[in-house]
Prior knowledge:
Shape: globular
Oligomer: single chain
Helix content: 25-40%
Number of strands: 7
Amino acid sequence: MGVLRxxxxxxxxxxxxxxxxxxxxxxxxxxxxxxxxKIHAALERLRPSGPVISADxxxxxxxxxxxxxxxxxxxxxxxxxxxxxxxxxxxxxxVGRMTIxxxxxxxxxxxxxxxxxxxxxxxxxxxxxxxxxQVAITHLRALRNDINGLPNSADPAFGNAMLKLLTKHSSxxxxxxxxxxxxxxxxxxxxxxxxxxxxxxxxxxxxxxxVLNADGDTPxxxxxxxxPPRLDYSPHNEVSYAGYKQ
Length: 246
């Protein structure tokens, strides 16, 4: 039996090695994998107001610079700060034995969300929503300029110009691949080759022949009753995907 007890970390051999073997710490350049995705999920759950982990690192389950920044923030603001005083004077951006055990302890005994915790989540959602709104405004301005640049409807070139405009600004795509990676018996990491879908760690439950998200703001339905199984997925309720298992 391992030392890690939280549902997110327990029974993961690589995280158990990190918790027990000094040379098995996690840092920038560590081989990507499901264990790194669990670190991402833990950091976002425990420090929702901390540095944002990049979508690329979440999608590839990699320990890159943004993950390192989030780890450093976690260790610096932990009470007490996580420092190995045998050779350090300040926190670093590595997940070693002290860090993984501290995270696991918080996850295992996490109390009900406090008002401050909920406010931190709301603040991050506001910041990310504002950024998304800015992207939408930029797109709408470009659309307005392209519409203003269309020839008169009586012009023979109007048809081709309108087709090009619709193709350029269409938000629907048919060449998107979504990958679902099992992290443990109740959690998956969903990634995509389409940047807008991002990467999300989702807890699951099952009702009859459907696998559903257990909680969170990302609806997921895997309908095993269809052949091939159909996946409906909407990361953070911002964009939607529907497709079939390949």
